[in-house]
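Input set for joint prediction.
Command: fold jointly, output C-alpha cells.
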Amino acid sequence: MIDLGCSLLGSAADTERGWEFQDYQGPVARWCAGCGDHAVLAAVQRLLEAEQLAPERTVFVSGIGCSSRFPHYLKTYGFHGLHGRALPVATGVKLRRPDLHVFAVMGDGDCCSIGAGHWVHAVRYNPDIVAIMLDNGVYGLTKNQTSPTSPKGLKSNTAPRGAWLDAMNPIATTLGVANASFVAQTGDWVPEHIAATLRAAFHHRGFAFVRILQRCPQYTDQLFASALRDPSRVELLLHPDGIRAPAVERMVPNHREHDPSDLVAAFRLAQPDERIRLGLFYRNEHVPVYEQVRAVPPHTAEQRARLVNEELDAYAL
Amino acid sequence: MTVAPISDTRTPGPSAAREPHIVRVAQHTVEIVSDSGEGAQKCGQIFGRVSAMMGNGTWTVEIIPAEIQPPPRTPPSASGNRVRLGTRRVTNWGDEADLVVAFNEQVLLHRHRLGALREGCTILIENWWERHEDEAIRAAWAEAMQELDGHQYRFIKVPMEEQCLTVVDTPRRGKNMFVLGMLAWIYNRDRDKTRELIAHEFRKKAREILDANVALLDLGWQWAAEHLDFRVEVPIEAPTEPQVVMNGNQALAIGAIAAGMDLCSMYPITPATSASHYLSEIFEKYGGVVHQAEDEIAAIGVAVGASYAGKVAFTITSGPGLALKTEFIGLAVMTEVPLVIVDVQRGGPSTGLPTKVEQSDLLAVLFGQPGDAPKVVLAPATMEECFHVMTTARRLAEAFRTPVVVLSDANLATGVQPFPRPTVTSDAMAGALDLGPLGEGFRAYEWDAQTGLSRRSIPGQPGGEHTATGLSHDEHSRVGYSPDVHERGCAMRSRKFAVLQQSLRPPAVCGPEAGDLLVVGWGSTLGAIEEAAERARDEGLSVSTLHLRFLSPLEPGLREIFARFRTVMTIEINYSDDPQDPYITDENRRRGQLAWLLRAQTLVDVDCWTRVPGEPLRPGQLLEVMRRVARKGGVS
Ligand SMILES: Cc1ncc(C[n+]2csc(CCOP(=O)(O)OP(=O)(O)O)c2C)c(N)n1
Ligand code: SF4
Ligand SMILES: [Mg+2]
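C-alpha cells >
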C-alpha cells in the first residue's frame, strides 16, 4: 500500500507585525573593517525593513566567498551552499515556492567564474529573484587570487606580475543573454544609491541582476580609489524610470540620461571607458518569469491518487 | 502469397502441407533484430506485451545500437528486442535465444558474434539480400553465411520484402508488423489483442497507416501459417492478481508520482533520460514539474533548493552526471536536506558504455564525496521494486533528513516485466510538515543526543529562521570550527544511520539456511542469480542466495548469516581482477564493489565473480560458476 504524500506546502503570507531593522539583524558580521560588504548588508536590512518582508518568508541563498557569508548575518532563512552554485539553489527555492522572497548573494569568482554557466542560464530562466554580485575584483576568502573581473595588470598571488587578460564585463555579459530583464550597477560607497538600486531590483518582476562594486581594503584597496577621490570619474545613469538617489546625484557631477528600455544604448554604456557608470542599464518587465511559466495547479493527494491509478490502467494487463 | 520460402540446404525445409509440429516448452527466448529504424523494437515490445496480457511470464530487453542511425546492414546497426517467455514468472533475459528473426544477415552476425544464439536455434531471415541486384550485397550475404556455417542453426528464409510489397510501397516501414504477424502465429498469440495494441500504437496516425499495419500483421500470420512447419507453445499459468507491465524507468517515474514528488530536476543522460521523457509528458497533470537544468550540477542544485523550501524533489542521472553532483550530495548530507537521487547506472568509467548495464557506481555513491558523507543507498532489484523504491526513498529522506541514492541500472531501465499492480492510496503521509510557528528557542538541528535525528524548519515557518550551511556547524547552524563542534556534527550525521540499520530486518536467504555456497547480489542481477541457484540446487548442489536492497546502511545480521556457509561470494556486473590473471595475487586483487564493502564491514573473506560484458548476466553462465565454486570451494 502506498500513501500518497501530497505536496506539503501551499504558500504562506507575510506575518504583519511592524518589522524593525533589528528584527533582521543576525550575529555581528565578521568581514574585515572597511570591507564594502558591511555597507551592502546595512542597505539590505533597510530594504527588508522598508518593504516589511517577514523574516520567515525571506530566503538569502549564497555561494562561497567572503561575500557569501552574507546570509549568516541576517535573521531570515538562509542557505549558504557551494562555491558558484547559489543561483541553481535560489532558482529551486523560487520555482516551487513562488510565495517566498528570494535573494542570491555571490562574489565575482562565484558568479563570473565557477558559476558562470549558472549565471547565464539564470538570466535566461528569469526567476523572480534579486541577484546581488559583490564584485571586489579578486578572490577574497582564498586570499588574493585573480578573478575574472580583476583589471588587466592587477597583481595577485596567482598573477604576481599582473593579470594577463582583460577583465570580464559582467554588465555587458548579462545584457547579452536572452531574457535579460533587469541589469543595474551600484557601488558600496554610495549607500543611498545601493538602497535605491535594491528597491528597484526588489520591485522588478524577474531576475534582477545587481552588480555592486565592492571595496576590499585587504586585497584591492586601490580598485575604486580614484572614483572615491574624484566623483567626476563616476557617471550616473538617470531617467524618470531609472534609479534615483538625490544625495548621490548632488555629489556626482556627471549625469547621463539613459532610458532603461533601450537595450542597444545600454550595451554602449556598458563598454569600458574612463568612467564608472552607476544606475539602471536595462529593465524589461515583460519577460516571462520562470516559476510562472512552469506553474502547475496544485493537486490534492486524492486527485493524485486517482490520476496515478488511471495511469496504471494504461499498463494493466 | 504463393512464394515458397527458399530453404537452406543444410536443414530440412519447412513444408506447408503437414500439420505444424508443436514445440511445447516451459520457456522460450526470441530475438527480433533489424537495422536501427526498421522497427524491430516496436515489434518486440508489442509481442512482449501481448504475451504478458495472455498471462505468460515475460522479460523484454532492448538491443540498442550506440548511434542513432548507424550505417544500415552493418553489425553495429543491430537494433531490436529479446523477449523471453515463460509459463511462470520470468525474472531475467535468459541465456541464448531459441528463435531469431533477422531483417538482414549483418545484424544476425552481430548477435551470433556476441554468443546470443543457441546451437540449434531457429533463424527466420529476410532472403531479399541473397538475391539482391547489388553484387556487393550478395557477396556480403555469402560471406556472412560462410561465417555462420558449421553452427547448428536452422535457417528459414522468409521473403519479407516481397511479401510486404504486396501491401505497402516502402517495406522498410512495415516489415516489423509482418514479422509480428509471423511471431503471433508461431506462438499462437491472441490476434484481437495484438490488433488492439497496434491500434494503440498508431492512435495518433492516419487511419490508412493503421489499416496498412493491420494488413501486414495479417499477412505475416497467413504466410507463417502456410509455410512454417512448427509452432511453439509456452503453456500459460496466468497470475491471479491484477498485473501491470512496464520497464524500470517507467516504474521509477510513476513511482515518483505515487511517492508524492513535486519536482524532477535533471540533465539528459542515457539510460536515465527515458524516465524524464515520460515524466515530462505526464508530470504536470499531477502538479509536478520536470526542470531540465543547464547541467547536472544545476539539476541537483535546483532539487536541493526546492527540497530545502519544503517541496519533494528528486534528481535523476547516470554515472558521469553522478560525478558532477558529488559536491551537492555532500552539501545535502551536511545541511541535512532530504533529497532523492536516482542513478541509472551504465558502463564506466568516463563516458564508458552509455546504453549498457553495469553496477559500477556503488563505491562512488558511498564514498565519492570528500569528507565523511553518510547517506542511504538503496538498490531496487526488479521493475516492481523500481516503482516502490521511490516511496521508500522519500520517506527515509524526510525521516532521516538525508540524501537517499537509488541505484538502478540500464538492465532495469529498459527491461519490461509484468508485476502485481500496486495499490495507490491517498492516505496522508506520516509526519507531513506544516508551516506552523516554532516555539521560542528552536534550533535548526535539534539533534537527539541518542539518535542524531532532528526535525527541520521550512522557509515560511516563523521561529525557524536559520542559515543552512555547508560549513561545520552547531545545533543552531552557527559556523564553528572547534573540535567539539565538528566531531559532534559528524557523529550526529552518522548516528542516524545506525538507528535506521537497527530498524531493518536481516535479509532473507533463498535456499538452504546453511551450506556450501552463498551468493550475494544487489540490483538487477537478482533474477539471473536466483534462476542459476535454483538450477544448481536441482543438480543437487548446496547453493543459496541473498540479495541486498539496502547498501547503506547494510542490512543487519550479515556476519551471522555468512558464518553458516563454507564459501560466500558476490556476483556483480562490475570489474574485478581475475585471480588467474598475471600479477594478480590475493593481496593485490581488486574485487567487486559489493565484495569490497562486505569484506570491510563483516571481516568475512567474501569472494567475488564479476564481469563487465555490457549486457545482463546469463543464468547459464552463473550456473557454471556456482557448480565450480560449490564443488571446489573458491572462485579460483
Ligand atoms: C569547488 C570549490 N572550489 C574552490 C573553492 C575555494 N574558494 C572559496 S571562495 C573562492 C573565491 C572567492 O572569491 P569571490 O567569489 O570573488 O568571493 P569573495 O571572497 O571575493 O567575496 C574560492 C576559489 C571552494 N570553496 N569550492
Ligand atoms: S578580504 Fe576583502 S572582501 Fe573579504 S572580508 Fe576582507 S575586505 Fe572584505
Ligand atoms: Mg571577489
